[in-house]
TrEMBL record:
Pfam families: Pep_deformylase. GO terms for molecular function: metal ion binding; peptide deformylase activity. Belongs to the polypeptide deformylase family. Fe cation binds at residues 150, 193, 197. It comes from Lactococcus fujiensis JCM 16395. Removes the formyl group from the N-terminal Met of newly synthesized proteins. Requires at least a dipeptide for an efficient rate of reaction. N-terminal L-methionine is a prerequisite for activity but the enzyme has broad specificity at other positions. PANTHER family: PEPTIDE DEFORMYLASE, PEPTIDE DEFORMYLASE 2. This is Peptide deformylase.
Length: 223
């Protein structure tokens, strides 16, 4: 199914109807629920969610996390036709709510014999962030060595996606507790990608189209 067909399918629904469909107990979010380029919410600023969290917004966060978990499970992802993802934002589901799910796996550890073993902690970061915002950042920039991809963008767009190397992010968790976290490396890039979504910004907005692989002064390249 192409992005356009998804857009036509979702266009007549109100945002309340979209969310209602997403959070049905029997529903698992799949690629058909993810809007692609051209869908208006990808270029709009989402609204903050209210606390205490509504049951609907709580379930939405859980469903988004379930999608990421499914997308990283080779068997389930294959069966459901999911692209692997480490982050998902409400705007990508056709909603204008500041809800972000992040699920970043830890790399396998290597034992003395050189075999890969499952890490003790499966995830580096596993969190649903409500109303997340960057409150401070490093002067230094950084980019992922291989560029970035996005579940809402079907083609590859090569180039360094230049972001802040380190960020301090404030958000609310599902219990309504205010959290403040400092992020660097891959986690920093991933969370900035998702916060951007909630502000209508796409990853390729940060690529220098003239010199997509230029390493600017002092820019950290993250492997
Ligand atoms: Zn994205």
């Amino acid at each position: 199914m192409t992005g356009n067909e998804v857009n036509e399918k979702l266009a007549p629904l109100t945002k309340d109807q979209i969310q209602e469909n997403l959070i049905k107990p029997s529903h698992q979010i799949d690629m058909d629920d993810i809007v692609r380029e051209g869908f208006p919410t990808l270029r709009e600023v989402a609204d903050e969610v209210a606390f205490p969290l509504s049951k609907e917004d709580l379930i939405l966060g859980e469903k988004m996390m379930e999608f990421l978990r499914n997308s990283q499970d080779p068997v389930i992802a294959d069966k459901m036709g999911l692209r692997g993802g480490v982050g998902l934002a409400g705007n990508q589901l056709g909603l204008l709510k500041k809800v972000i799910a992040v699920l970043i796996p830890n790399e396998p550890e290597i034992d003395e014999a050189g075999n890969e073993i499952l890490p003790t902690e499966p995830f580096k970061m596993q969190e649903v962030l409500y109303n997340a915002k960057i409150v401070s950042h490093s002067v230094q920039d950084a980019a992922l060595e291989t560029g970035e991809g996005c579940l809402s963008v079907d083609e590859e767009i090569p180039g360094f996606v230049v972001r802040h190397a380190r960020v301090t992010v404030e958000y609310y968790n599902k219990e309504g507790e205010k959290k403040k976290i400092r992020l660097k490396n891959f986690e920093s890039m991933c969370v900035q990608h998702e916060i951007d979504h909630t502000n209508g910004i796409m990853f390729y907005d940060h690529i220098d189209l003239k010199e997509p692989w230029a390493i600017k002064d002092g820019m950290l390249v993250i492997q």
